[in-house]
Amino acid sequence: QVQLVESGGGLVQAGGSLRLSCAASGHTFSNYDMGWYRQAPGKEREFVAAIRWSGGSTYYADSVKGRFTISRDNAKITVYLQMDSLKPEDTAIYYCNAAEGEAINYWGQGTQVTVSS
Prior knowledge:
Layout: E1 3-7, E2 10-13, E3 18-25, E4 33-39, E5 46-52, E6 58-60, E7 68-73, E8 78-83, E9 92-100, E10 104-107, E11 111-116
Parallel strand pairs: 2-11
Antiparallel strand pairs: 1-3, 3-8, 4-5, 4-9, 5-6, 7-8, 9-10, 9-11
């Protein structure tokens, strides 16, 4: 049973930083892409960042490029999202995702990030 458990969300002032963690278990993720998505109130879920578990290639949405950094720890089977220079528009529930191709998708329960102005 695949489990993705996010942590690290919270309330921060604009310009501040947070680091989200996603602890993965229940599967071998070597062929997976691990990603972060977010959903703000009244909006659709959107892509934030992703990392290929094998090789470590990273991908970012234009809105977070240069401010957010995705990384992974192979030994801990954990993916991180370092978020710097946070803006009020970054306020959302952040979800961890594990995907293998287009057919297999797992989601975490989400963690709230609130950025005050």
